[in-house]
Design a protein that fits this description.
By secondary structure, this protein is an alpha/beta fold. The longest helix is centred in the first third of the chain and has 13 residues. The chain binds S-adenosylmethionine. The site of S-adenosylmethionine has 24 residues, from helix 4 and strand 10.
Length: 252
């Protein structure tokens, strides 16, 4: 190990395209003795790690075989206590629906020196790559980031969100897309609200459907889109320039 005192870097690897890694992330990766990498992180990112670094995959995608969170946290503490510099490489930004906050709390409680390296979150990177300005001032008052998979299973207050007039960017919404859209419609969102789903945003494999809120589940199913995908709901979707792989059924 390179250091008498270990340290953990919680690093955001960006939304997918490995070129969207920050310069700081590259520098910290190069210092690491051990890299713990999530499965949404592009593997080309690892070429910035030193040749001698140990790489451990600790992915946990919904419904798939996964590494328990408690195991990952204990492993980071153990490695840092042995003097290792650990790069915990997470998709997007470590604090955006990524359990980075939980990991930071565990590391701090254990007295481990920790630094957070922010990354471009998928909810900004994927729409931006498609030309969607999520806070375009002509049509949006701001942007709200939501999960489609709340820990307690509850729905947000759709009426309040509709009244707020912000663009909605929804992570992890694909598994229960139909229910999600039905509850938004029941909560007062109009059927014709422009909506899109972006799969594998910023990657060469990116695909998207551009449609209306009511038509989104059907359009996603017809195009065979799956996870990982970001949903964007709001007038800003009209600004999207579709890629070659997109299915377009634009809002009227
Ligand atoms: C556990 S969350 C992690 C989010 C991550 N911390 C971030 O800031 O982007 C995983 C979800 O992020 C979204 N996601 C991650 N990468 C994506 C990509 N390349 N394209 C579209 N959505 C993506 C999907 O909604 C996926 O289900």
């Amino acid at each position: 190990m390179s250091n008498a005192r270990g340290k953990v870097y919680l690093i955001g690897a960006g939304p997918g395209d490995p070129e969207l890694l920050t310069l700081k992330a590259v520098r910290m990766l190069a210092r690491a003795d051990v890299v713990l990498v999530d499965d949404l992180v592009h593997r080309d990112t690892l070429r910035h790690a030193s040749a001698g670094a140990r790489v451990i995959a600790v992915g946990k995608r919904g419904g798939c075989k996964s590494t328990p969170q408690a195991f990952i946290e204990k492993l980071m503490v153990r490695l840092a206590r042995r003097g290792a510099v650990v790069a915990r490489l997470k998709g997007g930004d470590p604090f955006m629906f990524g359990r980075g906050g939980e990991e930071l709390a565990v590391l701090q409680a254990a007295g481990i020196e920790t630094e957070v390296v922010p990354g471009i979150t998928a909810g900004l990177g994927a729409p931006a790559a498609l030309g969607i300005p999520v806070t375009h001032r002509d049509v949006a008052r701001g942007v709200t980031f939501l999960t489609g998979h709340a820990r307690d299973g509850s729905d947000p207050d759709w009426r309040a969100l509709r009244a707020a007039g912000t663009t909605l960017v929804i992570y992890m919404g694909m598994a229960r897309l139909q229910t999600l859209i039905a509850s938004m419609l029941a909560g007062g969102f109009s059927a014709g609200t422009p909506a899109c789903a972006i799969e594998n945003g910023t990657l060469p494999t990116q695909r998207e459907v551009l449609t209306t809120l009511a038509a989104l589940p059907q359009a996603v199913a017809a195009a065979g889109l799956g996870s990982p995908a970001i949903l964007v709901i709001g007038e800003v979707v009209r600004y999207a320039r579709s890629s070659a792989a997109s299915t377009v059924e634009r809002a009227a």
